[in-house]
Amino acid sequence: MGVxxxxxxxxxxxxxxxxxxxxxxxxxxxxxxxxxNAAAEHxxxxxxxxxxxxxxxxxxxxxxxxxxxxxxVLAETLQKIHAIGIRLVLLRCSGFNNVDLPAxxxxxxxxLRVPAYSPHAVAEHTLxxxxxxxxxxxxxxxxxxxxxxxxxxxxxxxxxxKTVGVVGTGEIGRCVAEIFLGFGxxxxxxxxxxxxxxxxxxxxxxxxxxxxxxxxxxxLHCPLMKETYHLINSETLxxxxxxxxxxxxxxxxxxxxxxxxxALKDRRIGGVALDVYEEExxxxxxxxxxxxxxxxxxxxxxxxxxxxxxGHQGFFTQEALTNIARTTLKNATQFEGGTxxxxxxxxxx
Length: 349
What we know:
The protein is built from eleven helices and 13 strands. The chain is an alpha/beta fold. Strands 9-8-7-10-11-12-13 form a seven-stranded parallel beta sheet, sandwiched between helices. Strands 1-3-2-4-5-6 form a six-stranded mixed beta sheet, sandwiched between helices. Helix 1 (27-40) packs across helix 11 and helix 4 crosses helix 6 (171-182). It is globular and about 60 Å long. The protein starts with a strand and ends in a 13-residue tail after the last helix.
């Protein structure tokens, strides 16, 4: 893919605060960041390519780089941006599993993120995926378009009184749990740090093994780290009910893809809905409609009738994009002023 650069320099005082290279730019990124920048007065350079060691040179003369979920912010990239004088990485997302935090700390490069842009956006998309998977909405829609009004093969189940397991009860997981409580579900949760409000509302915190064994629906909302990498794997999938539905709107690598494929082939799982995928960096946010999908595992997933996949769009609402843009540029302004918001600073633990 060629490099496409757009320059936005919006002034109300005549002086831009910072010159920022924005990587992995989509049209909506430019739209919402440009609107937010009317008040922030930064100079934004938009690039459609991902940030990686080969593209760092595009950020020469900039004071910061702005990245998304699939950009490479590992040690080599950080060393190269440090070498050209950049000391700030702005993440326009909440997750930071694509950042080498120890390397950033060693190089004195500050990492700022958007910790809470709209937990409701991802939570509501989680429910949309579940309902569509359970009630076979994509298959039904295709049938009706072809004049086929049979109901055979479209059977779902009531969510009311079913047990739903929520893995991770941060801001998004909390919203998801509250939605399922509203549906009249029994909600189990797994998180090292229980949410007191959820406990008071009837959510029961249990060990992960118990959650996997007892839940008809399992939905993943925990951060991706060493402890949660491939949380859903060949061993944990042996614990789930054969009619269980697994939803992942968290991070792709929470799920071991080959183990998932094996469970689907052997009918040891009822269905899967994914908005994220472990190897999505080479697939998502691009048009591959005129070529074969090069990822064999992803292509295999698409062959199952009980698999529903969206391309990392859980965050994609007007409210979320507005909040992401505003917080990202606010982070740049506060860093420039020497007072970054501690809630947005990402540090190595």
